[in-house]
Amino acid sequence: MKSGIGYAAMMLALAGLLSATPSQTAAAGDPVVAARQASMKEMAAAAKAIAEMFDGKRAYEPAAFKAAANALSARTGPALITEFPAGTLGAPSSAKPEIDQKRPEFEALARHIGALAGALAAKAGNAPAAIGDDMRMGAGLPMDGGSLLGKRPNAAEANPATMPAEHLLHLILQDCSSCHSKFRQRQE
Length: 188
Ligand code: HEC
Fold this sequence. Notes:
Blueprint: H1 7-14, H2 31-55, H3 62-75, H4 78-82, H5 98-101, H6 103-125, H7 165-183
Helix pairs in contact: 1-2, 1-7, 2-3, 3-6, 6-7
The structure holds heme C.
């Protein structure tokens, strides 16, 4: 069953990562804001590269997979948290001021995606020459994405180290979307 648009591509679209929005010129003056926006763009490029390799839209290269997974891992977790200090939130940045009031929630999201990206990077470190079946979404999981977009009980409890790489990517993309929907506002 091949649909026109892959699940990962759909998640990227949901996360607003496929649309080329102009960057925030108004925030260019704050180096902290500029640096984290650049870092976010690097993450988007890395996630897109991996998604396209799994979707067959880009040639799979173990080295490129590893580099992209490492880029995600390096920019999530504690690194992501330190990119959002108080005093750099709110307009003209797209970071919502609520980040400061909801630090535990924001940091939990950053750590959650960091753990997933770390697991992905560990797998990518031993990436085989070709994408193997064991790297693909498990047979027990729906491939149409339908129920993946809804509540997925036990997902948080599952051990990332035992998940296929493609599944990790999808969970990572969900975290991008979760954080953006809560803590990012579009500056028009
Ligand atoms: C814990 C929260 C959080 C997570 C997780 C997160 N982001 Fe973001 N992201 C933000 C916030 C907040 C902004 C707005 C930053 C600003 O404008 O100062 C942002 C902005 C962006 C931007 C726009 C950058 C620009 O040039 O203005 C892109 C692209 C992006 N994120 C991609 C991603 C991708 C891809 C992922 C997942 C791999 C991800 N983000 C995960 C919080 C998050």
